[in-house]
Amino acid sequence: MTEPTLDIVAIGNAIVDVIAQADDDFITSTGVTKGSMRLMDEPTSDHLYSRMGPGREISGGSAANTVAGMAMMGARCGFIGQVADDQLGEVFAHDIRANGVTFNTPARAGQPSTARCLILVTPDAQRTMNTFLGASQYLPEAALDRDLIASASILYLEGYLWDPEEPRAAMKAAIEIAHQAGRKVAFTLSDAFCISRHRADFVKLLDSKAVDILFANEVELLSLTELEDFDVALDQVAAKVPTLVVTRSEHGAVAVQDGRRVAVGAEPIERIVDTTGAGDLFAAGFMTGQVQGRSLEDSLRMGAIAAAEVISHYGARPEAQLDELIRSRLG
Amino acid sequence: MTEPTLDIVAIGNAIVDVIAQADDDFITSTGVTKGSMRLMDEPTSDHLYSRMGPGREISGGSAANTVAGMAMMGARCGFIGQVADDQLGEVFAHDIRANGVTFNTPARAGQPSTARCLILVTPDAQRTMNTFLGASQYLPEAALDRDLIASASILYLEGYLWDPEEPRAAMKAAIEIAHQAGRKVAFTLSDAFCISRHRADFVKLLDSKAVDILFANEVELLSLTELEDFDVALDQVAAKVPTLVVTRSEHGAVAVQDGRRVAVGAEPIERIVDTTGAGDLFAAGFMTGQVQGRSLEDSLRMGAIAAAEVISHYGARPEAQLDELIRSRLG
Asked: How far from the centroid of its chain's Cα atoms is residue A211's Cα?
């Protein structure tokens, strides 16, 4: 087993977010559950776009946000994801590379276009996501850079990418590559509706010991276990993975690692503007702490600090220098 | 002369801004004067893009920002400008229409792509703009909607659009249409470097009484007159136009209308994030006040309030509800 040259390589949807303000009535009129992520085809996405307010385009994608954040905290990162050969694809590629992340997946010619997520942010700072997966759903196993995956301490996968067929197969292959190279696999459950679509698969993944670090929020943990009691659900899932991290919004987060349970509170924040990316950046902070050899508690606090930064402004990519922020808060 | 059905129609560059944070050293390394606007060809723009940090794309264009702001304040607005038939063109068209502005200029097929402005924002909130005019520079006179122009109380033109040949000719034709319909023409000098490229033309425009309302900032006023004394320059230009409005950054603004001079201070603001669009939104507030029949002083204050909003966040389009903001501050 060779020494890893990267800290993490992530596989995820390569998405550009289109973020607009909206009121609750507008969310209701779109027929979607506030706070959730809904998949839609291109005509539906175009129709919603024509109805929504003026937007701002900021690169997104759950796992991509995580590695962008980790790179800002000094971690060595790579990303694998499928964009189309179009302007939004260029935007995505530029932004993630400008964050210092290695990104080499070739753009895909022709239709569909690069994935976009129409994000409606309500005055309570909640985000409701409407995703057209576009080119992202055609990430083929053949596009995997096997050497890149084998070179990273952690392979990080997003549950969202379990929806489309080709990337799902690619992720399974990537898990094999990572484990054969002696690397860890981290996985985020992404979204309760995503879990309801793939619960059996996700449970099988955990039972087969494919996952070393699992990220979930409270709702996702309960959805996965189909339980109502948080502590029971936490124990049940913690028994399946070496490291389990569960975020609880304003109540902070809890981790269980090899039987030891640690909790931290949420970081104080002046004003929450847009919760998009909170979970992604929590994962970024936590994993950066872990690859830096920090304690479980400090890793959780790094997650909380990174999450607090990203919800203080529009967009799921950090604006402030996260490394300085963590140095000032944590030392 | 029929009653106008629109308050304003603007002709301007149809641009999507790509906004990134940068430090002063980076600005120096690009060889551009901080705070200015520089035109560049596509390869130069692509090269700068590859070097700059992760961005956020927000629709821009000076006159387009102005009408977007005016529409948010309740004015009836139209816009004429040239986008290409590409994703950024769709973004521009969506955003301005979502702001409630009538925009019908057909997208242009083929190359070049939609205009983009790489905006580098330094920690002092100054913006330095690097513009690839793309499709915008091919706005043909034939694309002018003559009825739209004749239907608006004010025709608003941006000096920036004087650079490319076709739109310059189109703007001259538009001035004819507006004046024949008994409408007013408003013009912004845009930028000191733009003035240095077109000083003789701009002076001729003023001397020929083509302009009824002129907008400039302090530097632009001095550049136009090639004078060093603000008051002398103000008097000289005020003699050429019925209404002259000059913004002075943190020192507020002054207007001279039919010989009467009024000044207001800048609006208080908690934190300046990005000065992009300050002049555009000042013009928006001022003209909205004028078409609402407000006093010269109140019109200036509306300009100051709108400018203060847009510099409190990234991007040159307002985020807050400007109409409510003005009601709460001005009644």
From this structure: 15
Cβ atoms of residues B77 and B67 within 8 Å: yes
Complex ipTM value: 0.94
Nearest residue on chain B to A69, judged by CA atoms? B54
pLDDT digits (tens, 9 = 90+) for A203-244: 999 999 999 999 999 999 999 999 999 999 999 999 999 999
- Of A16, A57, A86, which to mutate for an interface test with B (greatest number of B Cβ within 10 Å)? A57
Q: Report the CATH number of the A6-13+62-105+137-330 domain.
A: 3.40.1190.20
> What are the domain boundaries of chain A?
6-13+62-105+137-330
Which homologous superfamily is B6-330 in?
Ribokinase (3.40.1190.20)
Among residues B173, B95, B167, B97, the alpha carbon closest in space to that of B134 is found at B167
Cα(B283)–Cα(B316) distance, integer angstroms: 13
Please give the single-letter amino acid code of residue A166: E
3-state secondary structure of B56: strand
Residue A49: closest CA among chain B residues belongs to which residue? B94
Given a cut of 80, whether residue A1 has pLDDT beyond it is no
Q: Which of B60, B113, B103, B62 is nearest to B83 (CA)?
A: B113
How many CB atoms within 10 Å of residue A23? 12
pTM confidence score = 0.96
3-class secondary-structure state, position B291: helix
Q: What is the DSSP string of A284-320?
A: HHHHHHHHTT--HHHHHHHHHHHHHHHTTSSSSS--S
Closest-CA residue to A116 (of A221, A185, A16, A202): A16
Q: DSSP string spanning B116-160? A: EEEEEE-TTS-EEEEEE-GGGGG--GGG--HHHHHTEEEEEEEGG
Q: Please give the residue of chain B at the shortest CA–CA distance from A22.
A: B319
Structure tokens at B45: 């723009």
Chain A CB contacts of B315 below 8 Å: 56
CB contact under 8 Å between A57 and B54, yes or no, is no
